[in-house]
Amino acid sequence: MEQRTLSGGLGVSALCLGTMYFGTTVDEERAFAVLDRFLDAGGTFIDTANTYSFWVPGGTGVESEELLGRWLASRGVRDRVVLATKVGALPDPPGAAWPEHAEGLSHDVVRRQAEASLRRLGTDHLDVYYAHIEDRRTPLHDTVATFASLVTDGLVRVTGCSNHAAWRVAQAREIARAQGLPGFTCVQQRHTYLRPRPGADFGANPHISDEMLDYTRSEPDLTVLGYSVLLSGAYTRSDRPLPEQYDHSDSTRRLAVLAEVARELGATPNQVVLAWLLGGDPPVLPVLGVSSVEQLDECLGALDVVLDDEQRRRLDT
Questions:
Q1: Could you tell me the CA-to-CA distances from 313 to 89, 130, 317 in Å, in that order?
Q2: Averaged pLDDT of the chain
Q3: pLDDT on residue 8
Q4: How far apart are CA 122 and CA 117, in angstroms?
Q5: Quick check: helix, strand or coil at residue 153?
Q6: How many C-beta atoms lie closer than 10 Å to residue 199's C-beta?
Q7: Rounded distance, CA 249 to CA 292, Å?
Q8: In 40-183, which ranges are E strands?
Q9: Cβ atoms of 284 and 233 closer than 8 Å
Q10: What separation in angstroms does the CA of 163 have from each of 25, 75, 95, 190?
Q11: Alpha carbon distances (Å) from 136 to 17, 139, 177
């Protein structure tokens, strides 16, 4: 699989495998099959969080990390995997209203949860560690210093943030630069080919902003990842309607062009969306939310899709 490089020379596969529902709605047998296929295809970048999936009936948030820990141990492949997880969004106490009572990004929470994630994953270090959602109760200087301490202590290789406003990312990175600390070098945001209608509300999980994309173009050491890139199957499945935030006239026009380009390339709309993200300005590494080997294989086919300049222009405009 094509490789990309994160800050610090950390090589990752161009596609990242998301494991949000592994261990809850995706049972262990299916999850292991998807993980095995991803690894066999040259995939190395795997994404989870300490919250996946607390909102599923019976879920507590530890399920995905624990399943990954069992898979890594059973396959003996920790050294072949770039492992990413997140902190800051778990309800505290369990069952409390979310996101009002998310655990946050205080020093004590981040350090304690990093150690808990390491235990569940069965590893001595995390390759990428994200601040999962914003915490404006904790001073940003404190959060930056805490994440930096994990890097200097050898527990984390690269840090990042998810679901943050562009100005908060920029400010956090400036704080790190000013203090000579390792700063955030990955940003993971909701992103896809369709654009949300003006004023669409995504709560604590916002769609990537034009400001964020503009900022990352000027920051060569900042990698952008996108989640919910395939809209839970809405691009290709008639039983999956568009999320209401994307259900407007602009989407109708863009879906028509997407279908045209897919036909021209002999590809699926999903594959075109992934190719559009990977080859964009800035390039965006997709986090795949798949629940079967068949869905993963379709996504892997996107790596063979090449958009020419005219097709990209039509998709963009």
A1: 38, 33, 6
A2: 97
A3: 75
A4: 8
A5: coil
A6: 6
A7: 32
A8: 45-47, 82-87, 126-131, 156-162
A9: no
A10: 24, 32, 21, 8
A11: 29, 7, 21
Residues 24/291, Cβ–Cβ less than 8 Å: no
For residue 93, whether the previous peptide bond is cis, meaning omega lies within 30 degrees of 0, is yes
In degrees, rounded to 5, the angle at the alpha carbon of residue 225 between the alpha carbons of residues 313 and 166 is 90
The two beta strands, 10-13 and 3-6, are antiparallel
Six-digit token pair at 18?
């998301």
Q: Which residue has the tokens 């602009």?
A: 250
Q: Is the separation of the CB atoms in 210 and 195 below 8 Å? A: no
With contact defined as beta carbons under 8 Å apart, do 3 and 36 qualify?
no
Instruction: Give average pLDDT by consecutive 10-residue segment, the chain, 317 residues.
Output: 89 98 98 98 98 97 98 98 98 94 98 98 98 97 98 98 98 98 98 96 96 96 97 94 96 97 98 98 97 98 98 97
Separation of alpha carbons 30 and 28, rounded Å: 6
The residues carrying an active-site annotation are 52
For 3-316, give the CATH class: alpha beta
In this predicted model, what pLDDT tens digit does every residue of 107-126 receive, in sequence order? Answer: 999 999 999 999 999 999 99
> Which residues on adjacent β-strands are paired with residue 90?
none
> How far, in Å, CA of 225 to CA of 243, rounded?
20
Nearest to 183 by CA among 200, 204, 164, 211: 164
Q: Where are the domains of the chain?
A: 3-316
Strands 16-18 and 45-47, sheet pairing: parallel
How confident is the model at residue 146, as a pLDDT?
A: 98
Output DSSP code: residue 243.
P
Strand-pair category, 10-13 with 126-131: unpaired
pLDDT of residue 76: 98
pLDDT at position 7, please?
79
